[in-house]
Amino acid sequence: MEKQRKDNLIGSSLLMLCAIIWGSSFVAQTAGAEFVGPFTFITVRSLLGAAALLPVTLITGGIRKKKGEARKMTASEKKYLWAGGAVCGVVLCFASNLQQLGIDGGTEPGRAAFITALYILLVPVFSVFLGKKIRALIWPCVIVSVIALYLLCVKEGGRTQFSDLYVLLCAVCYTVHILVIDRVSPRVDGVTLSMIQFLVAGLISAVPMLLFEEASAEALIKAAPSIAYSGIMSSGVAFTLQILGQQKTEPTIATMIMSLESVFGVLTAMIILHQVPTLRESIGCVLMFAAIIVAQLPEKKKI
User: Fold this and answer.
1) How far apart are CA 214 and CA 217, in angstroms?
2) Inter-residue contact 84 to 193 (CB < 8 Å)
3) Using an 8 Å Cβ cutoff, are 8 and 248 in contact?
């Protein structure tokens, strides 16, 4: 019992750190957008993420080999791994670039964090089309989230900010990404799959980067700290923390803790960028966060 309590504490702490890194990454993305274009940022960030996960893949592979758990992959397994990683990478590419386009277009990091977190509610809704049963609790949460989005995205007088639409589409793409990961990941190594998807996302993003953007060496140097934080910390380190944390934490609790990234996105924006949300936006954030948390509550078992 004591060991389980200790494992739960360790797991929760790792996931909390993961949420802090992900939340603060929105501020890094905003800072980087001042110097380089969105496609340049995502290209370098994704390739850095792949590079950061490479040693993790080698280390975990070495540990499994030492324990005698490693085995040689068959040709069909390798094909499935790379095909699955490529599909995940394409979807991740769209999600990441849409998010960065939104932030580059003026969506504040705190608001971007909460709109992106909508994927937690969209996943069960999209699952209906895959034949999965959706809990009755989800529908009122979806309604509350729509009200929250209105308060976050529609300003007084009915004015909207086009960049918010990019972030909303990003949440839809992340929803698809999670569903694809859910389908592919049980048959492959999670860290290797993530490394491949970051590599694919980076290579695809390089095409519009080369066609539409020009980044000088000076601009890249100025954006380097932001890109490095987003690539190495948000992708490599946070993903590893997520894997380790989820191994020691109940799935529902793990999702609740990781959903705090939206809260940390607002807090870091307030501390670092001095961006204080309006009363209207604050109410929207509270409603969105409440909907996310309630949606993760376990269903009562019938006696």
Assistant:
1) 10
2) yes
3) yes
